[in-house]
Amino acid sequence: MDEELIEKAQSGDRHAFGLLVERHYDFVQAVAWRWSGNVSDAEDIAQTVCVKLAKAIRAFRGASRFRTWLYTLTLNAARDHQRSQVRERRNAASFLADPTSTAANDNQDQAEALWEAVRLLPDKQGDAVLLVYGEGLSHAAAADVMGCSEATVSWHVHEARKRLKILLGRETV
After folding, report:
1. Which is nearest to 150 in space by CA: 162, 141, 159?
2. Do domains 2-81 and 97-167 have the same CATH topology?
3. What is the fold, at CATH topology level, of the domain defined by 97-167?
């Protein structure tokens, strides 16, 4: 049955693609959970796999079983998710860190508090911080994404730092 759904999905049949995702979603989520150990992360990974699957389904040639191919896609998404979380924590710590202190690098609670506070910022400030510190983009690349100048991104980051200092009750951020 998968073969027929795959062929139809590769031809652009959205209904067939939906049925294929429905048939394998629990498998994808279970693999994601085993790799992440966290229900929320597993859900994020599974959603990412669904998006990637929509783009990659045409590349499936049947050289291996579909489930094996899907497992590889899920595993890669889980690894990407894990790398992005590590990068996010590292960037959050560097955003919070006093240049003379390395204590913030070891404090995951502090990083989580920071990202909670970032979500409270005005949209453009939050976007700038997430793009620069969460995604690791340069100010120029963030400016392209946000559709503004590099100086504007720098200003949003500067203003975000001031607001975060107040939100986090810190003298230096």
Report:
1. 141
2. no
3. Arc Repressor Mutant, subunit A (1.10.10)
